[in-house]
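To illustrate the input format used throughout this study, we show a single complete record. The first block contains the structure-token representation of the backbone; no residue identities are included at this stage. The design step must infer an amino acid for every position from geometry alone.
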């Protein structure tokens, strides 16, 4: 296992503290007056979902977590548990609690192949694609003169999630959505082209 210096602990890195895997959410290296630099870090525990802040000093090193990536197929959600299976063996099923799954899951279709995060042979989370393409299943028609709110309306996509989109988006069209923010990115295609 490799060791990271205090200034190598950056966003999107995984570290081990107290035997637990943590994802680095933010990091900021700064100096307080005449003192040595400090890296103020916000961390999320990959097993419990707990977020905490930690400071690392120049002399400190931390172990980098060995997180393995495995392809997994998303099956369904039931009572706050998200069920997945191996893409090659549907009988090899496992669940991940909702506390370890991000809000991005609402934009993922069933039977989609995702990247599972594995630490010590235990699934601890999932990486989501940054953008997905989904079909609009419900969209109200734009009414002339109702652009006072900025010219957007809410639509429902095929996964059941609601998204704010421009007024010209119609039912049946395919739109691209940023899963990290939940924002509409662009129209891709559909029945009106």
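Output of the design step:
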């Amino acid at each position: 296992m490799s060791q990271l210096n205090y200034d190598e602990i950056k966003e999107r890195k995984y570290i081990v503290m107290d035997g637990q895997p943590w994802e680095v959410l933010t990091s900021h290296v700064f100096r307080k007056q005449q003192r040595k630099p400090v890296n103020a870090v916000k961390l999320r525990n990959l097993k419990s979902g707990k977020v905490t802040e930690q400071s690392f000093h120049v002399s400190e090193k931390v172990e980098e977590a060995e997180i393995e990536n495995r392809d997994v197929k998303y099956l369904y959600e039931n009572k706050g548990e998200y069920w997945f299976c191996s893409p090659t063996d549907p009988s090899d099923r496992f669940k991940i609690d909702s506390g370890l799954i991000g809000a991005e899951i609402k934009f993922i279709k069933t039977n989609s192949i995702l990247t599972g995060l594995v630490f010590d042979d235990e699934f601890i989370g999932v990486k989501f694609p940054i953008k997905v393409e989904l079909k609009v299943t419900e969209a109200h028609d734009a009414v002339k003169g109702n652009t006072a709110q900025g010219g957007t309306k809410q639509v429902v996509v095929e996964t059941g999630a609601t998204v704010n989109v421009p007024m010209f988006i119609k039912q049946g069209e395919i739109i691209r959505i940023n899963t990290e923010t939940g924002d509409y990115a662009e129209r891709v295609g559909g029945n009106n082209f």
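Structural context for interpreting the output: The domain at 68-127 is CATH 2.40.50.140 (OB fold (Dihydrolipoamide Acetyltransferase, E2P)). Residues 74 and 84 are 5 Å apart (CA to CA).
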